[in-house]
Design brief:
6-stranded parallel beta sheet; 44% helix; alpha/beta; 13 strands
Length: 404
């Protein structure tokens, strides 16, 4: 029985953002069943240290620095008639690392995390190929194309068209294609006609994200509304901008002292500028997001564009906080009405105001949300389908010797 080669577009450690959280937990799950070799990119100097954090879950680990600029990737994409999503991740050292592992080790499964990494598969792989698309990226760029103007709209539509063609060809040759929700899997089947497409949902670590766990608390008084996320990611930037400019004024009519905290690393200049609006806080990166979530009167996820399952929503639910989400942000989550959903400016503002007006009701809703996460979203339960899809078994634990 051979090993697993795990290819990731971003080193899955520390698990402190959506894609890394999923990648880490899948890697951990697989390592309990077979030996796993990891090859991944890093684009943050802190992530280069992730190699040691993954030692207990991996055999060989190769972390390759990725520094290609977006402008360079775009120019290469135009010349080569490829999606920018692929040229941005073209890298000779990583290809050499893949060839080296395949030559030196008995690999019977290649787990490809994110479509950008499928370009490193052998031309005619004899290994089982599990393609974890996570989300349908081409659909995301199609949505960008509709909302953009001028040359950017053309570029986004081009990316969507070329990437969908690429996704279709990858899925055709994969043993299985995975998505983070049933909705994403169904959309992929509809758009590409692909077979062997499965949903493997995200989970949540309910011991870490627990309101009674040990973490640094945030001192706060009055109504606090919180948004968490990677703040150079376009859907997050658009979400907080929309909330501050359109929704927060309606909340301030009833709660003029309510504050809105935007919590997350790498805020863009546009996000930083929002801190000039009265009542808005932009924290930048924080050591532990749990303190801010726990302090929230309401957690919001007003994303206009959201694919798959939003970890930020699951984290807030696990922390027993009341959540108001857009329909797009809530779509992939089986929340059983334990979060409030709004679509328009008025609907979201009304839901937030109602929760601020009823603290005991908001607390009760948060407790129901945590119970739903505990029952439905443990990582072991959510990843269990991989055992069937990949034909895996949990490693037998070594037998303890007993005294004669």
């Amino acid at each position: 029985m051979g090993d697993i080669l795990f290819l990731a577009h971003r080193v899955p450690y520390p698990p402190d953002r959506g894609d890394k959280i999923r990648g880490f937990n899948i890697l951990k799950f697989l390592s309990a069943r077979k030996r796993v070799h990891l090859i991944a990119f890093a684009d943050d100097t802190r992530d280069m240290k992730g190699k040691s954090g993954l030692a207990k879950y991996t055999g060989n680990r190769s972390i390759i620095w990725r520094s290609k600029s977006r402008l360079t990737a775009a120019a290469q994409a135009l010349v080569k008639y490829k999606p920018v999503s692929l040229t941005a991740f073209e890298n000779r050292p990583l290809r050499d690392a893949v060839n080296n592992i395949l030559a030196r080790h008995s690999i019977d499964t290649i787990y490809v995390f994110s479509s950008q990494m499928a370009q490193y598969l052998p031309a005619n792989p004899r290994q089982r190929v599990i393609m974890d698309f996570v989300d349908m990226d081409s659909a995301k760029f199609a949505a960008y194309g509709k909302s953009s103007r001028g040359p950017m709209a053309w570029m986004m539509k081009r990316e969507a068209r070329l990437l969908q063609s690429y996704e279709r060809s990858v899925a055709k040759n994969a043993t299985a294609s995975l998505f983070v929700s049933d909705d994403e899997a169904a959309l992929f089947r509809e758009k590409t006609g692909a077979e062997r497409v499965f949903a493997v949902e995200n989970g949540i670590d309910t011991e870490f994200f627990d309101p009674v766990a040990s973490f640094k608390r945030i001192d706060t008084t009055g109504a606090l509304i919180v948004f968490t996320g990677q703040m150079d990611y376009r859907p997050n930037v658009e979400a907080v901008t929309w909330f501050v400019e359109a929704i927060l004024p309606h909340i301030h009519l009833e709660y003029p002292k309510a504050r809105f905290a935007i919590v997350g690393r790498e805020p863009t200049e546009a996000v930083k500028a929002l801190a000039r609006v009265p009542g808005v806080i932009v924290t930048g990166e924080v050591a532990d997001v749990r303190g801010w979530i726990a302090a929230a009167s309401v957690v919001v996820a007003p994303l206009k564009l959201a694919r798959g399952v939003q970890n930020k929503v699951l984290e807030a639910m696990a922390m027993a906080r009341p959540v108001v989400a857009s329909a797009a942000a809530a779509a992939g989550i089986d929340h059983q009405d334990t979060i409030r959903v709004g679509e328009t400016v008025g609907e979201i503002a009304e839901q937030v105001n109602a929760l601020l007006a009823n603290p005991s009701g908001a607390a009760a809703l948060g407790q129901k949300a945590r119970k739903q996460v505990e029952d439905r979203y443990s990582w072991e339960a959510r990843l269990a389908p991989l055992d069937t899809i990949m034909g895996l078994r949990v490693k037998a634990l070594p037998q303890r010797r007993t005294a004669a």
